[in-house]
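Q: Given only this backbone (334 positions), what sequence would you predict?
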């Protein structure tokens, strides 16, 4: 066994959110020691289960298309199985250290916290099949211990983030507000194409004529003072949805955005036609600050997370971390 440094690359994977297996390996063999604490496979089972769920979700959506299992998919030259194991190890060690720091700082769980931990453990177990429970190796006691440690670690982490001061005024002054000016709209839509997986198919001329007649009738009702609810009750086959965007978004067609930004609040657009169909747009708010404030909030949070990464990497120097690589590297997540 040897000391294995936790580098910034692996920590970055953790914060990007890379968020089983039961082999014949012993659940009591020490996988990692941190100062005087020792962690066995039981301390890793929950994180392994979560990563395996991610693998299953990915495989359900992409394996047939890409022809590769999630574990064999490569990101910057590294297979996802290896990256997942590095992330699991980093996360478990992170929470062990946060938990240790929280205890030293006098943090504790309230009765409400303990009740939430028990509820979360019950809900997870009840959501799993008998086979999933057997394969994962999880049980109520393992989950209670894991959730208690995670919740206390989160309390300490969030308190630490709150203590980091950033210059919000400087952040605001470096942002061009118009770049994040948000337009909040609602629309009625009639398709002129058949949307398939990564494909658009043309409609027949008859269907195209029906679509245009439908949007013309919609426009006529709106000119007579009908709101979208009334129109939807009178014309079949219309689709209603809300669409919020900033100018740099690619979530709305350019024709849609160009028509929308010319509207005053409360105004309805004429018929707007894009490659997907016909729209009538209703402007709800042409100068929403929501996206701007969210961007500022995220920038502040990211700066605090950067401070935490520095803090945590310095904190690691106070801990002697020894990983049983012979055991961990041969552990099969498939």
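A: Predicted residues:
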């Amino acid at each position: 066994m040897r000391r294995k440094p936790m580098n910034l690359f692996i920590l970055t994977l953790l914060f990007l959110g890379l968020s089983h297996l039961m082999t014949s390996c012993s659940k009591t063999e020490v996988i990692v020691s941190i100062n005087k604490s020792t962690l066995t496979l039981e301390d890793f089972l929950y994180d392994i289960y979560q990563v395996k769920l991610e693998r299953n979700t990915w495989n359900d959506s992409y394996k047939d298309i890409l022809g590769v299992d999630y574990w064999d998919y490569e990101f910057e030259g590294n297979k996802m199985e290896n990256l997942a194991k590095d992330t699991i190890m980093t996360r478990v060690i992170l929470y062990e250290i946060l938990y240790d720091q929280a205890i030293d700082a006098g943090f504790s769980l309230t009765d409400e916290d303990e009740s939430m931990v028990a509820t979360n453990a019950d809900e997870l177990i009840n959501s799993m099949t008998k086979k999933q429970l057997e394969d994962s190796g999880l049980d109520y006691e393992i989950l209670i211990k894991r959730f208690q440690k995670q919740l206390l670690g989160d309390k300490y982490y969030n308190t630490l983030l709150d203590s980091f001061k950033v210059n919000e005024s400087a952040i605001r002054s470096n942002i061009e507000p118009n770049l994040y000016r948000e337009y909040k709209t609602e629309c009625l839509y009639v398709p002129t194409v058949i949307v398939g997986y990564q494909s658009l198919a043309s409609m027949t001329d008859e269907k195209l004529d029906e679509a245009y007649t439908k949007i013309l009738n919609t426009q006529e009702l709106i000119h007579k003072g009908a709101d979208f609810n009334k129109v939807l009750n009178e014309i079949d086959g219309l689709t209603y949805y809300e669409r919020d965007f900033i100018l740099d978004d690619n979530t709305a067609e350019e024709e849609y955005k160009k028509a929308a930004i010319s509207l005053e609040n409360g105004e309805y657009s004429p018929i707007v036609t894009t490659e997907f169909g016909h729209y009538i747009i209703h402007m709800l708010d042409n100068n929403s600050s929501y996206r701007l404030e969210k961007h500022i909030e995220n920038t502040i949070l990211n700066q605090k997370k950067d401070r935490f990464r520095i803090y945590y990497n310095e904190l690691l120097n106070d801990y002697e971390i020894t990983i049983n690589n012979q055991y961990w590297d041969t552990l099969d997540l498939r």
